Description:
The complex is a heterodimer of chains A (about 250) and B (about 150).
Chain A: H1 2-57, E1 78-81, E2 87-93, H2 98-114, E3 118-124, H3 134-145, H4 150-159, H5 161-164, H6 170-180, H7 185-193, H8 195-210, E4 215-216, E5 218-221, E6 224-225, H9 236-249
Parallel strand pairs in A: 2-3
Antiparallel strand pairs in A: 1-3, 2-5, 5-6
Chain B: H1 2-12, H2 14-38, E1 44-45, H3 48-54, E2 59-60, E3 63-64, H4 65-86, H5 89-117, H6 122-147
Antiparallel strand pairs in B: 2-3
Helix pairs in contact in B: 2-4, 2-6, 4-5, 5-6
Amino acid sequence: MEKLTKRELKEQRKLEKLQYQKQLDSQGRKKTLLLWVGLPLVILLSVFGLIKLAGSSSSPSSDVPNITLQTPVSANDLQTGSKDAKAVIVEYADFQCPGCGAEHPILKQIVSDYKDKVLFVYRFFPLTQIHQNAMLAAQAGYAANLQGKFWEMHDLLFENQQKWATDPSAIDTFMAFAKKLDLDTDKFKNDMNADSTKKFIADEENAGTANGVNSTPTIFFNNKMITSPTGALPTYDDLKKLADTALKSGK
Amino acid sequence: MVNTNSKLSAISYMPYAISILSFLGFLDATYLTILHYQNAIPPCTLSGCEMVLTSKFATVSGVPIALFGSIFYLSIFFLSIFLLQTKHRLALWLLVALANAGFVVALVLLFIQAGILHNFCMYCLGSEIISTLIFAATLLILRNELEKPAH
Lengths: 251, 151
């Protein structure tokens, strides 16, 4: 009897020890589980917080500087639409800038939807320090203008931006565009390299800088800057809203 | 003797330091990733952070480097927690390998900003500092491990 109890006691102690260890184990496991559920939760929450933070800082209108265009639209400007339009859009752009390429179809749509009710002006602002072919593309645009086909060239340049943007022989592409538009290619080439062409582009760029332009596309709607270097680019709806308001108020 | 002891205790905090650093790095890189995708095609600019973030070096075939950064820091974060939990050697080796790669990438990105773009972006610099600190911390742990007698 006694022996059995001793044995039982021993076994009981063993069992208790085992249970205690199991309890410790399960506590550890619970802790680990908590850690591996809690940490991803913390990660998720912080991502959510960051999305809110980023959203508040990059809304299109939050950081647009309050700048009025000081260089009025003149006969010298490259323009399309009606001169008497109540809605005037001036864009400082770089043919090699992806942002300008993205904005191009939107502006084109606005211009074609509003036809005579809007005046669209394109001003050169090639970011030559970061875009190797920006200046050459601007020269091609200006040379096409001398043969009355600026907008056709403008569209070709933007629509094929990726083909020539970083191509060391972009000039060949531009010559091909000139041929496609039935331009006098000899004259086109001469005009491209003419000092007067380079001066026109430089003058527009300098005027842009003086007007507070430091990124492309910078868009002025009725002389008021509506874009910023850090903000999102205006959508079709943004521009439509502005145009509709301006047309309604008849200002 | 006292010296080695204090050195050891400092080193035992290194995995914690790595966890905290990698979490900060994750916040930084993720913020930039979110900005990138919210502003899918941002304006082009000549100066400052935007220029660095919109340069052709900011993405690898369309994927922003910041996203790689997020994944990198997240991996380091979980590896360091795993190391703290299990003291597993493999976790340490993976951590060292990742931190090495991160340090090299940080150097390359720093070189691009200084040498090619001539512009710096605070968020990028922050990330590069964090990568370097994590790299240094893993080296300290590794040296300590290698000095230990094998058992």
